[in-house]
Amino acid sequence: MKNLCLYDDGEHKYYLLGWEETEEGGLVPTNQYLIVHGNKGFLLDPGGAHVFPRVLANVSEIISPKNIEGIFYSHQDPDVSSGVTMWLSIATNAKIYISELWVRFLPHFGVYDKRRVVGIKDKGNVNMNFSGYKLDFIPAHFLHAPGNFNVYDPISKILFSGDIGVSVLPFNKRVQMIEDNFGELLEYMEGFHKRYMSSNKACSKWVNMVSKYEISIIAPQHGTLLKDKAARDFLNWFKNLKCGVDIIEEFYGR
Ligand SMILES: [Fe+2]
Ligand SMILES: [Fe+2]
Question: How far is the CA of 67 from the centre of ligand 1 (A)?
Fold first, then answer.
């Protein structure tokens, strides 16, 4: 699928980058997002080494990688961040933004230049200034990583939610975005959230916090985007979800 523009007011744009056209054996499919303001770009979870050529091609259709000023990583997982050295070598003016918990792990991916890495403190960072616009880095800890952040864009009102709100759909059932019928997506969401999310305490804390934002779209790192009513329905479901340590007996099986 081609790049999908989710928001465009002429100056500010928000893209879901294109998906691979064929199933890539056993690979978890991932979503990558690009915010463009004027001629500057900001990448959200651009993904692992395996998808780098495809994501770079998608980005290059929209802006020059040299104009990327920031790359955000919601957490440390390989499907999120293992392409980091490739991006640093191509997007030569970009800084990396990631939880300060993971900064010391980046050298394991081959990142040694600390001047290009900004560690996000646990409380997050609202009103982060980029070229002519602001972003909020908001905490989403233990959902699932212990150091984990979302990005809220006040212009488009899109919440990039990382691994929160993801759906794991069979390749032939992939849908880019829904507004209604959230219930039909649940069977592709429930297992992942119950196993990966840490506890209802973390879920409800996060829902209370993000509910203060006006949200047009919840944009997760995997699967279908949740627009308007579907976003609200997801928040209501997630707020009450029992998961992780709440149901730990299920995972031990004895
Ligand atoms: Fe993850
Ligand atoms: Fe993920």
Answer: 27
